[in-house]
């Protein structure tokens, strides 16, 4: 919820209300934009549709995600983790791919609508931190995944769903013990 600032010195209004509106718009744009990343990737896994034409680029389908994680861990220095991915996750991709699909759709819908935002942002950050860890030992750009998990962690603590989202509506309707972070 945006709180307008009190008047400035000598009754002169401050710029705080305008800045609050701009900050709310920026937070909402960041939340919705990252939500669309997750939502479109989840829909790509659901439908097998790998692109948003006529726009350039691609989306990661379920088969693509399976191939990416299998490739990423080939030279992973933590053998227990590498073996778990290669011997459990990849061969049972029907289960793990479905969990990924549901997770991406959950994160995407929640962030776009601004509902259960802290939980969704933490789940999204967890996905990115996992990919960051999966690429440990690979020669990738140091900030490859951090450009997503850092803003997602920030959104988890910013109450970003209260800015043009449904969290502000949902919070008072939750049972009292749930009216706190990470539920609201």
Question: Care to describe what's here?
Answer:
With 184 residues, the chain is mainly α. It has one domain. Helix content is 59%, strand content 0%. It is built from seven helices and no strands. It is globular and about 50 Å long.
Main sheet makeup = none
Sequence of secondary-structure elements: HHHHHHH
Q: Globular, elongated, flat, extended or rod-shaped: what is the shape? A: globular
Q: What is the strand content?
A: under 5%
- Low-confidence residue ranges: 1-9
How many structural domains does the protein architecture include?
A: 1
| Proportion in helices | 55-70%
Structural class by sheet pairing and helices: mainly alpha
Mean pLDDT: 88
Radius of gyration: 20 Å
**Could you give the count of β-strands?**
0
**How far do the termini sit from each other?**
12 Å
- Helices, by number, come to 7
Question: In short, what is this structure?
Answer:
The chain is an all-alpha fold. Helices cover 59% and strands 0% of the residues. It has one domain (20-47, 58-178).
Note the topology.
Layout (H helix, E strand, L loop, with lengths): L15 H32 L14 H11 L6 H11 L3 H21 L3 H18 L11 H12 L9 H4 L14
Q: Characteristics of this structure?
A:
7 helices; 0% strand; globular; disordered N terminus; 184 residues; mainly alpha
């Amino acid at each position: 919820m945006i709180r307008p600032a009190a008047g400035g010195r000598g009754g002169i209004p401050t710029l705080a209300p305008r800045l609050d509106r701009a900050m709310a718009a920026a937070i909402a744009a960041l939340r919705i934009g990252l939500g669309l990343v997750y939502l479109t990737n989840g829909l790509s896994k659901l439908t097998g549709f790998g692109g948003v034409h006529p726009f350039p680029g691609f989306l990661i389908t379920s088969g693509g995600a399976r191939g990416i994680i299998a490739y990423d861990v080939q030279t992973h220095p933590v053998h227990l983790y590498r073996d778990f991915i290669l011997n459990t996750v990849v061969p049972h991709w029907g289960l793990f791919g479905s969990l990924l699909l549901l997770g991406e759709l959950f994160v995407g819908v929640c962030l776009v609508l601004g509902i259960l935002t802290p939980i969704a942002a933490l789940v999204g950050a967890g996905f990115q931190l996992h990919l960051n860890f999966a690429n440990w030992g690979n020669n990738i750009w140091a900030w490859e995944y951090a450009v997503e998990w850092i803003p997602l962690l920030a959104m988890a603590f910013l109450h970003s769903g209260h800015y043009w989202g449904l969290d502000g509506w949902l919070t008072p309707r939750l049972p009292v013990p749930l009216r706190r972070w990470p539920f609201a």
